[in-house]
Amino acid sequence: MKKIDFPNREIWFGYHSEVGGFIYDKSAQIGLPSKKVRLFILKEQKTNLFIADILKDNLIKFDNTIFEKNKILINAFIKELTNRVITKRITHCWGCKRNLNSVNYEICSKCKWIKCGCNACGCGWQRFHKDK
Ligand SMILES: [Zn+2]
Ligand SMILES: [Zn+2]
Predict the structure, then answer these.
(1) Most buried of 81, 83, 99, 125, CB within 10 angstroms?
(2) What is the reported pTM?
(3) How much is the pLDDT for 63?
(4) Distance, CA of 5 to CA of 130 (rounded, Å)
């Protein structure tokens, strides 16, 4: 994998035979179930959870051609991450009470709330309060 320069964060680019190019962001691995890893899949433009072994199995040996091919997507990811760092929101999870921020966690595409590692977001909060 190749390390990507980013202030105060450890970010890596890797390439896997099945998922293609992905980004591993060390700061985005908080609160995950054990042996799971959160990766941003470049061609799908979204974050998914994978079994941590994915980083060992079928990983394609890094070469610069692959990096160059993915460079536009990587740069777009870096730009988006930079925006998230600038507009950082801090809150806590209504489900498990963990502290959350809009940089290290996903944003739910439906409710735009920060999505916790326990899967709580605004969608669940609305359901929870309607049912009472
Ligand atoms: Zn939570
Ligand atoms: Zn939601």
Answers:
(1) 81
(2) 0.82
(3) 84
(4) 45
